[in-house]
User: Fold this.
Amino acid sequence: MLTLLDQLDKGTLWRSPGGIHPPEVKSLSNTTPIGQLPLASTFLVPVPQVGENCTLIVKVGDKVLKGAALTQGTSIWHLPVHAPTSGTIVAIEPRVSNHASALPVNTCVIKADGNDTWCELAKSELENLSNPQMIDKIRSAGIAGMGGAAFPSHIKLNPVSEIDVVIINGVECEPYISADDRLMREYSHDILAGIGIIHRLLTPKRIIIAIEDNKPEAINAMQTAVMQSGLPAGCIRVTVIPTKYPSGGEKQLIQIITGREVPSGAIPAKLGIVVHNVGTAFAIYQAVAQGKPLIERVVTVTGKNVGKAGNYWIPIGTPVEHVLATTEFTPEPEQKVIIGGPMMGHALANIQVPILKGTNCILVPSSQEIGTTPEEKACIRCGECAIACPALLLPQQLFWHAKAGEYDKAASFNLKDCIECGCCSYVCPSDIPLVEYYRIAKSALKHSADEKQQAERAKQRFDARLMRLEEEKIARETKAKEAAERRQATMTGTDKNAVAEAMARIAAKKAAAAQPSNAAPSIDTVETTTSTATPKNQAVAAAIARAKAKKAAQANTDDTDLSHAVNVEANHAPTATSVVTTQEAPLTQKEKVAAAVARAKAKKAAQQLDNTPLETSETSEAASAAQPTADTDKKAKVAAAVARAKAKKAAQQAQANTGDDLSQTVTPDLQSTSGAQINASTDVEAATDIDDAETIKKAKVAAAVARAKAKKAALMATAPDLESAVKSEPAVKSESVEHVQTKVNTPPIENTLESGVAKAETLSSSAAPTTNPIETAPLSSEELKKARIAATIAKAKAKKAALAHEATTSSDSSVGND
Amino acid sequence: MAFKIASSPHVTHNLHTSTVMQRVILCLLPGIVLQCAFFGWGTLIQVLLAIIVALSCEAMIMRLRQRNIKASLSDNSAMLTAILIGVAIPPLAPWWMIVMGAAFAIIIVKHLYGGLGHNLFNPAMAAYVLLLVSFPLQMTTWIAPSSVALNSPSVIDSLQIIFNIGAHIDINQFRLGIDGTTMATPLDTLKTDLSMGLTSTESMTKTIFDGSTGVGWFWVNLAYLAGGLVLLKLKAIRWHISTGVLLGLFVASSIGFLLSPDTQASPVLHLFSGATMLAAFFIATDPVTAATSPRGRIIFGALIGVLVYIIRTKGGYPDAFAFAVLLANLCAPFIDYYVRPRAYGHSAG
Assistant:
């Protein structure tokens, strides 16, 4: 029993089933040496990979040198493309592709400068390179399989499994094509050098160069080169195989050389076999030794309708039109221009398409050569197709089902194993374009598979969402329970405790107010503009008041208790402020309104968030916290009601209307608002000059702004993309509002609840008591400042809410810890 | 300019359906010639009549189906069907039989099932069976081969008998052998003799037999075999079905003959009598109604061979190809379903 290697050494060949013997017509092009064509003026370099796993590193107008890379990528699948000549990038736009579909692909259009100047090439001595370096050179040279499939070569040269046998494919079984034939005749030594590199990288036990027996010159040249190569003796041989189409197909060639079949759906590497085209071996040598990227290849230009049929070195990206124009192409009516051979090539409708890395032939046959497309007749089930099929399929059954649209049945006849070689269509006595039917069936199957996959993904998403919602619901319920328990626990304390605590806090606050510098760090959530430029102590006082209010709110569960606590605290808060300002700060109704508005906003924010029981209760706390306070002043109450109504209205408004709503509110006194907002801190005098009405307005505006912010924050809780939501608005807003807005444009908010509540409380607390003593007191700068502070605080709160990018759970706990 | 686009491959082989059919018809000629030589002009008259009827029916149906009449007629399939019916029925059968047969084959068996490529049954054999079961007497009235016949019909005689015109001529005078006995086909003779208690060896001594095979029929079969081999050479047909048929018949008849030589015809007689070669190379190989995969075709052919043997020895009819082919036609989709080639890269089974 001979081992596979023995068989390989003996040159044993196995039979590949099926196959045909179409007229070869290779002598049309293989008698002359590989020539050169004049350089085209424009080159089209498709960059279809851009966007997926690579980026374009040139832009329109850039000058590029021949061989310069145009794309850059990090993915292992990325294969750079290079400028085929020196020139200028004049456009990067979708152009018709050199593909059967002719679908447009992104293409770099390079206007050649005619100099064909090379960029600097990194030549290297093979001995000095490590294997990874070599593979990197091959990758960065953009080498793809030159046999037609254009699979990235570096991946095939860096396999995960052990490779025993490398087959170098010089079969070139398609009729007409002679590019590999000429390359082997003229560059056999370079090909062998490339094979040497492959040998080094893959260290296979055997390398078989397979050539069909219709290329005796190439066989001789390669045999001579093998003899002269430095590769270990016995490791490499040239095996001549009988001429038959499609022996050059990878699977068929493996079967002929080794007698083994590549399992369906697997790659040859699974058998320890790798197949490389001779052209690829040549390109590998060029890349590794010369540093030349893959920017030109041998292309067979043939057919009776081309005057100068032959093989040419053609830069990749050269338009087919240019190639034909320079080879005396004389079109006839109904001319076909075929890229590739007559068996598997695709016909072009538009010849303004580039030569690609896998383009080995341009065939322009006369009508005598290939005849007209005959009319399809009925299948007589003669079975010739099954005899010709190299994949041992039953083409007529496939056709039967494909034609009937029974694609699943076609699939059950192993449609996916069809290599589209065209043998069945070639032999069909009824002229049925079988391969076309298979292509349609295959794409239909692929389409339905894609759809199925998408549906499956959607289902998974839906299930995941349901599960998540369920989990969230459970989590919320648990939280609500815990919070309720906590409240129950706190309830055991008496009201006195709360009052005592509040008193203690007030004392502490007073102390803090006396030492503004110490307190400063604790108010860093307030905008820096405010904290730096505004008299610090005011801000500090406000912040402290806010914090207290919040704490009070958390400490008390009972509504009345809470309000009481708040009232107590609130009564002291302004005191603290007055300590600083040394003047009573009578707040106008407007300011109260502002406070109420802010409160309402907070409420709304709470409502817009998840309606957990806890939050609702807290909202009601906030509301009721405001309520008793308002009792002290009817106007304030009214204002609160108005504000609530406003807030409600705002809530009802669609997100898109937010901007309008806001701008409407702001517009009346936009200028002064901006003055207040922007200059409030730095230009106190200017603010003081502003009369009563203006102050009121400002406060109103500030409140409105704050409300808008809060609203937005609330909206953000549902709309994850805060940025886009907010950014759509500035168009209808003035600069100042934008200014405010940007402050609010913080990361998406999960929960603004507790801060909103706190804010409402603080504002109400600061508003309510101060209105009591002096209802109509003359406005002072302090008063104005306070109004501004209130607004700023509201703003800051909104910001803080935005910053509080936490889940309800953590928010709740933070409420507890505050 | 815009260029013509088409799906690959862009070249095709020049062997078209019409050419294949044409080759099959041409390869039938030697057999027809010998059949005429042994059984008179009747065969030729029947063939011509069948062709006229078949083509007329084809044209009519294509017109009704609003298809291209010329394309359909020029694919030669109707003509082939007609010729097969023509050579299959007795040379002097009345004209209305062949007309009925050809019309039935084309209209009902072929076109009512969807036309070329879609018919389930071999049209010629279905027509033959229709005639055989409807008119058993006429369908088994073969005249004596000319070399052993007392009288041979002239062209005029044949025409008069077939069309039943002019002076009434008794067809039976042409059935008389030189020994004055009425002759049947070799298979029929053997069947009758065996049923009468004679051994096959005794039967073989009759005038209709020439040692081991039937007079005339042997040569006719040889001519069809030769034509069939040419077809194989031309690749108009593939070897699988024919080999299957002959092998199936040979193996089955050999076993039978070895077990009971006295009551069984020899394998040679089976292979070179009746319609064996005609059916093996020209009828069973009709691709439309046969199995499609190579292995399936061998099975299909062998099934026909075995069925022929069984019907010939056990059935009520002396020859059996028409029945065997139709039965195998019925099995073809079944065979196709279960006998699929192992595609490249798939493990066996």
